[in-house]
Structures are given as C-alpha cells and as structure tokens.
C-alpha cells in the first residue's frame, strides 16, 4: 500500500520531467530549433492532429491472454469445421509470454490512434483475465462496427526464422460477407501495414510460405470469421534472438506500435480507388503453420458495444495504396533493456470505449539527465514517427503534436513499468 501511495503522489513532477526530456531530446535530435538558432519561420497552420481519425473506429485485439481457462473447447474455424477455442501463445527467449508483448504493443497503438481522434475498442481489458475464444473475438470485432480490426501477435517459429509477416485467410471462407471484405478491404489494410513495417526497417519474413511478408493460411479462424477489414500481424519470431530483442524491449515495442499505427492510418486516410483497381492477389499457399505458432486469431473477449460507428470506409473499395518509397524510413534502432513483463494497465469496462488520451501514471526514472534511457527512448520515438507524419500530411516530425505523441508513448511504457514495480513491492 505504501508503494502505491508513493507512486501516485508525484505524477505532475514526472510528467513535467518527461516533457523536459521530450523538449531536450527533440532539440538534440535536430527536430526542434534551439534558443540560439536563427529566427524560425512563421508557424504553419494547426494540423488538427486530434481530428485526423474523427468518426473512425478501430478494433484492437491483443492476441492470447492469461491462463486458467479451458482452451480445447471446439469452436468454428470459419471454414465449416472446428478448432480449439484458444491457444497459450509463444514465450520469448527472456521468458516473456506472448500475451504480455501483444498487450503492451496494443496499448501503444491504442494511445496513438486516440491521439488522432479515433475511437478504439479493445478485445480484452487487461493482461490477466480471460480474453475469449477465437470466434468470440471475431464476433466482438463485427459488433464494434470498426472501420478496421487489427489482431496483434508474435510468432513462435524455429530460431533461425526471422522477420514479421501478415496472415490473410485462404479464400473463400464459409461466410460470404467475410470473404468479400477480406478479399478487398482486409487485403488492402494488411498490405498497408506490411508496407509500413518495411519502411520502418523491419525484415519481411520468408519462412513457412510467407511471400514478401504476406502469408495465406486456412487454419487461422479470426480473419475467416471477421466481417470488417482485418489485419493479422505476426510482429516477429520470439525464438529468434534479434526478433525477440525487439519484441521485449521498450524501444522495440514503440517501433512495432508506430509501424502498425502508420499502416492503419495510411489505409484509413486513403481515398477510395476506382472500381477497376482490384487488389493484387497473394500467392495461395497451403504451408503448414510454423512450429509452436499457436496462433488462431485470439481476437477478443466479447467486447460488447451497443453503439457501433456508422462512419466506415467503403469496405469494398478501400485504398490499398501506401506512400511511395520516398517516404523517409526510420533508422534501425538499438535495443535497450527489456521492460518488466506482466504488468497490467487499468482498462475500461469490457466492451466500452476508453477515454481518449488517458494515461497510466509514469514511474520515476532519472529525468534530469538528457542522456538518460528515457531521453534516448523519446528521441527514438520522434524519429520513428517520420513515416506517420508523412501519412498525416505533416511533412516532418517537427510538430508539437507529434512530439507530444512521442511523450505519450514513452510515458505509457514507463507507467507500465512503474505499476509493475509497485506491485512487486506491495
């Protein structure tokens, strides 16, 4: 109890310190002019960043969840058969369970989208309880009325396999509407996220039948049961040393979250193409899933939402286009120390939309030192936001709202680490 009281008594000091770190880091990175710089040009018109995704709903599924449930109950697989209700997911090399990695990245994506004005519905509300069978999560996505759904996972393949990939369903599936949506809008959204990952410097996987970071499978129920555009991302291989380092580190998780956000934003803001602009097909492979994969779209405990968003992009004709190769790619990042796994963040009641921009209380790192790990993390986040700035039409990241987004992402991670520390010392 003492540690919790202490933790909640200094939020203003910590937030002010983080803001100082953000300003210092941005200045050192050359993104904000220092006081001694030449007079700045007149400020551009406000970007209205907080309204970029107004009226849009995104359903986010942090795949898997804590144990303690019957995972073997048969449920629909979307192809007229059945499969187990749920799987446990992989465990990274450092012992971090996949459900925790997914949960932390999903919350970073949530924060980013809410800063842009989107309404976000989560499939599960914490990292400890039951998140639902795969069919329940797909049904929750359908009920949400989302413009796009994203299911966030990490793979468990042989150690030599490396890279991210997007899973798309082998078509047709039993549900005619799901087939139509996933063949068009779902494929476009998946390609947008794939391209954002490549621009961010991630390696596209080429194992288990994946082609240029895209893998077609008939054993993943989530996309086959989902009637809104669905993105199913395997961020990397938790058994591969390089991939695992990105999956469990703070900097790596921010990098993953920004890439996912950038892809979703690019898809959502794209103008509908002409009716003749059909999406290019993906090679239909029947490759067996990678060893230890354990991923069936662990999309969500029933996230009941009685007020679905009526404003959705044209599901039949979304824009699959992604900014061209001239979009500045974020540099490869170093891998700082891993976060403390297993910390659940406070969430809204299942099936409700959390308040936009709400934050967990951050911890207490050394904020006065601009060379601290926090400063480095903020600088990295700002640099990684460059492709998102392009997708938003901002030109660069020298924008106070994007710098504040970098602060938000870092404070979210620090808050989770602080909650974990408080829980240990109670």
UniProtKB/TrEMBL annotation:
Check the record and name the InterPro entries matching this protein.
Answer: MurNAc-LAA_cat, N-acetylmuramoyl_amidase_3
Question: Which Gene Ontology BP terms does the record give?
Answer: peptidoglycan catabolic process
Signal peptide positions are 1-37
GO CC annotations, alphabetized? outer membrane-bounded periplasmic space
- Region listing for Disordered, in residue ranges: 275-371
Where composition is biased (Low complexity), the residues are 275-291, 307-365
Cite the CDD domains for this sequence: MurNAc-LAA
Locate the MurNAc-LAA domain: which residues?
A: 138-265
Which terms does the record give in the GO molecular function aspect? Answer: N-acetylmuramoyl-L-alanine amidase activity
Alphabetized, the UniProt keywords read:
Hydrolase, Signal
UniProt-recorded name of the protein = MurNAc-LAA domain-containing protein
Q: Which organism is it from?
A: Nocardia macrotermitis
């Amino acid at each position: 109890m003492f540690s919790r009281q202490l933790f909640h008594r200094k939020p203003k000091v910590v937030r002010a310190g983080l803001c100082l770190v953000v300003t210092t880091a941005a200045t050192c990175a050359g993104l904000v002019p220092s006081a001694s710089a030449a007079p700045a040009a007149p400020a551009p018109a406000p970007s209205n960043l907080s309204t970029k995704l107004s009226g849009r709903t995104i359903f986010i599924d942090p795949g898997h969840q804590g144990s303690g449930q019957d995972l073997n109950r048969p449920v629909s697989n979307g192809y007229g058969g059945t499969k187990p209700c749920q799987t446990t997911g992989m465990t990274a090399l450092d012992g971090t369970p996949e459900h925790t990695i997914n949960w932390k990245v999903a919350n970073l994506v949530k924060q980013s989208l809410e800063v842009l004005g989107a309404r976000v519905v989560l499939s599960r509300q914490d990292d400890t309880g039951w998140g639902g069978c795969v069919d329940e999560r797909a049904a929750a996505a359908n009920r949400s009325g989302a413009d796009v759904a994203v299911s966030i996972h990490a793979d468990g393949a042989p150690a030599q396999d490396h890279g991210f990939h997007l899973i798309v369903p082998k078509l047709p599936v039993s549900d005619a509407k799901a087939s139509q949506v996933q063949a068009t809008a779902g494929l476009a959204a998946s390609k947008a996220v794939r391209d954002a990952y490549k621009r961010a410097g991630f390696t596209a996987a080429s194992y288990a039948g994946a082609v240029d970071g895209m893998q077609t499978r008939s054993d993943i129920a989530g996309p086959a049961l989902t009637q809104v555009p669905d993105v199913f991302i395997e961020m990397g291989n938790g058994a591969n040393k390089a991939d695992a380092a990105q999956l469990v580190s703070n900097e790596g998780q921010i990098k993953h979250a920004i890439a996912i956000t950038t892809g979703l934003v690019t898809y959502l803001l794209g103008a509908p193409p002409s009716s003749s602009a059909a999406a290019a097909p993906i090679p239909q492979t029947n490759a067996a899933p990678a060893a230890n994969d354990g991923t069936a779209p662990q999309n969500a405990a029933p996230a009941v939402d009685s007020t679905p968003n009526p404003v959705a992009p044209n599901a039949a004709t979304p824009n699959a286009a992604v900014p061209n190769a001239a979009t500045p790619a974020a540099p490869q990042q170093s891998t700082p120390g891993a976060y403390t796994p297993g910390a659940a963040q406070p969430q809204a009641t299942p099936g409700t939309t959390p308040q936009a921009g709400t934050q967990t209380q951050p911890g207490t790192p050394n904020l006065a030192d601009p060379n601290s790990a926090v400063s480095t993390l903020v600088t990295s986040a700002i640099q990684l936001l460059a492709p998102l700035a392009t997708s938003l039409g901002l030109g660069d990241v020298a924008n106070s709202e994007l710098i504040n987004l970098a602060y938000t992402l870092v404070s979210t991670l620090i808050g989770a680490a602080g909650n974990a520390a408080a829980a240990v010392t109670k």
